[in-house]
Amino acid sequence: MRRDLSAKYDLRVPRYTSYPTAPHFHPGIGPEQYGQWLEGLDPATELSLYVHIAYCAEMCWFCGCHTKITRKYAPVAAYMDGLLGEIGLVADRLPTRMTARHVHFGGGSPTILTPEDFVRTIDTLRSRFVIKPDAEIAVELDPRTADETYVKAMAQAGVTRASIGVQDFDPKVQEAINRIQPYDVTANVIDWLRTHGVPEINMDLVYGLPYQTIDGLLDTIDKAHGFRPRRIALFGYAHVPWMKKHQRLIPEAALPDAETRWAQYEQGTARLEELGYVKIGLDHFAAPDDPLAIALKEKRLHRNFQGYTTDEASVLIGFGASGIGMLPQGYVANVGETHFYLDAIKQGRLATARGVAIDADDQLRRDIIMTLMCDLEIDLDAVCARHGANAAQFEGELANLAPLSQDGLVVVDGRRITVTDEGRTLVRAAAAVFDRYLKKGEQRHSRAV
To answer: Comparing 102 with 423, which gets the higher pLDDT?
Structure first.
């Protein structure tokens, strides 16, 4: 991308894993509202389940997740008792024992659990929900805290996909982000996963980190490719120290400037494509025969709080402190502080702290934004027709795309929008044009790239 454009459009915009986005959730949506929404679900609806493990053994300074640090297991054990209690409270509010097609363990770090607690959680989910035989059960895995016993327990519990956090293999970068993870540690975990039969492996890499160079990033990509993962995610580091205070420990002077950051993204993307991966949306890459690549080709790609996905479930139930859920009526989020979360569960009430109800306009704009984010093109007339709406209402938004169009980043043909290859990196900026909640110049979000 031309460097003048990289500077011009290096804006702070949402990642659009939901719409409205999380900063617009409010405390007006609480436990009773959530309970009513659960009770009102169609019993035939298939669910996606997200389990948030809110603890890590050590704080990675680049982290943007909701997590607490502990070297003792007692707080984790107490948390898991509460989480299992929440599963029961939610299941009791559902109209029936509903079916789940997708289960995702995130964090924090799910690998902080004992094998016994991990299996106990899977067993509890299976007892309260009908987990489809072909359901994807995915776990975010930290190689530093996963041993072979844990990996074996995962496999025996039915885990089908492991997403391995790497970030960067350069020891200097690892030291600067407080995540020391030697290459051999990652290699051992991948060997265990394959030995015990976890069939699908993802790897997560990050660009824009302190002391990271383009050559170093390309070396990390080559080493990651050597493990033959089916998917690789290349995320941009979101430096938001006003939100995540531990990021203040990162030496800001060592962060790449905007031009270098863009070059890392472009050259890293090019290397992944040279290695045979299909580019998915903004930051995911998949083998050509992977379900994610096939979904992209067939325009069945989706995007939720876990990023790009083949998960088509219209209802996402989030468990754990800070867990987020999506229902036809709106979004809900649990309280983030673990002690408040556990207090709520002990008192027999849902831990919902905030959320947002969505109306017909929200649903329409969400469809537009997610279609742009996934397909990089959209026919506004066709999308509006699905919602019984008139696309003429978006003439103002189409006009606001003019700067992107003039710079060759999007093509606007009537009411059809296509993001160009050069504009792909800025698809979030194009999507933001349709966000009626976003305030110009808002600084609560990360860079567009």
So the answer is: 102
Q: Which amino acid is at 140?
A: E
**Class of residue 368 by CB neighbours under 10 A (exposed 0-12, middle 13-18, buried 19+):** buried
Helices and strands: H and E segment counts in the chain: 16, 19
Return the exposure string of 206-218: e unless at least 16 CB atoms fall within 10 Å of the residue's CB, then b.
Answer: bbbbbbbebebbb
* CA–CA dist 22, 382 (Å, integer): 28
Q: 410, 333, 397, 334: which is closest to 364 by C-alpha?
A: 397
Rounded Cα–Cα distance for residues 96 and 102 (Å): 18
- pLDDT for residue 443: 45
pLDDT confidence tier of residue 10, bands split at 50, 70 and 90: low
> Does the pLDDT of residue 336 top 60, yes or no?
yes
9-18, 155-164, 276-285, 326-335: segment of lowest average pLDDT: 9-18
> What CA–CA distance (Å, rounded) separates 106 from 260?
31
Using the structure block, give the residue that is written with the tokens 């844990």: 150
From 149-153, 366-370, 425-429, the region with the lowest mean pLDDT: 425-429
Whether 324 and 313 have beta carbons less than 8 Å apart is answered as no
Whether 222 contacts 267, CB under 8 Å: no
Rounded CA-CA distance 28/36 in Å is 14
Report the C-alpha gap between 110 and 83 in whole angstroms: 13
Cα–Cα distance measured from residue 420 to residue 404, given in angstroms and rounded to the nearest whole number: 10
User: Hey, how many other C-beta atoms are within 10 angstroms of the C-beta on 277?
Assistant: 24
pLDDT of residue 417: 98
What residues contact 268, with CB distance under 8 A and at least 6 apart? Answer: 205, 207, 217, 218, 221, 234
Is the Cβ–Cβ distance between 189 and 220 less than 8 Å? Answer: no
Q: What is the pLDDT of residue 3?
A: 62
The predicted pLDDT at position 383 comes to 97
Q: In this structure, what token pair is assigned to residue 425?
A: 């990196």
